[in-house]
Amino acid sequence: MDNQDYNNAEKAVNNAENSVKNTASDVKWKAEDLADRAKDYISEKRENDPEATQEGWFERVKENISDTWEDIKDGASDAWEKTKDASEDVKAEWRKKTN
Question: Which end of the chain has fewer CB within 10 Å, C or N?
Answer without folding.
Answer: C
